[in-house]
């Protein structure tokens, strides 16, 4: 029986569901669903419609099962740095986008606590004003972290909603500017210095980990059952992984 795999790739302007399979030694793909994604401006801030995103994720899975009833596994990648704060396993709104300007005011304060040279030495992550480290510090200053109990990057949030298992994937976590390049885990010294709650930043999980099956209610809604896998949830990392190169190919 042909094994089909569903890749859900979501960017800042659109998302797509692509089914892939091997056929006579060739990897074939078919796009089965595409949907628009865009930021919305509310009260002077830019935010994502996370509920619409999840609805489209489910609709695309439904479309995939309608055409390919046997799907071996699925996974989701998205852009980096953005996240969902949770309380009682419910999102804390708004879910800000990396394009929102709220980080500008806190960057000097972050760098007064931890100079960028020190951050770079520990994480290896270049400066971008939208990096999660600045977004989270802005949330702390706004009091949002006192309310929050958990924190998931956007693709891990969507995967959790599908299967009920929370994971913090390594490649996407590195985009936060909070992961120590030597240990490969969230850096407790950075978290402590910035007053970010360490309990919200547990151990990271490697891409390729099988999280589990779709939740029963989700499987019933989309018309099929499959394994949910944690891919390299940062879309750039997944793109690099997909390059058909082997050791020694590069000049």
From TrEMBL:
<dbReference type="InterPro" id="IPR050406">
    <property type="entry name" value="FGGY_Carb_Kinase"/>
</dbReference>
<dbReference type="InterPro" id="IPR043129">
    <property type="entry name" value="ATPase_NBD"/>
</dbReference>
<dbReference type="Pfam" id="PF00370">
    <property type="entry name" value="FGGY_N"/>
</dbReference>
<dbReference type="InterPro" id="IPR018484">
    <property type="entry name" value="FGGY_N"/>
</dbReference>
<dbReference type="GO" id="GO:0005975">
    <property type="term" value="P:carbohydrate metabolic process"/>
</dbReference>
<keyword id="KW-0418">Kinase</keyword>
<dbReference type="GO" id="GO:0016301">
    <property type="term" value="F:kinase activity"/>
</dbReference>
<protein>
    <submittedName>
        <fullName>Rhamnulokinase</fullName>
    </submittedName>
</protein>
<feature type="domain" description="Carbohydrate kinase FGGY N-terminal">
    <location>
        <begin position="5"/>
        <end position="240"/>
    </location>
</feature>
<keyword id="KW-0808">Transferase</keyword>
<comment type="similarity">
    <text>Belongs to the FGGY kinase family.</text>
</comment>
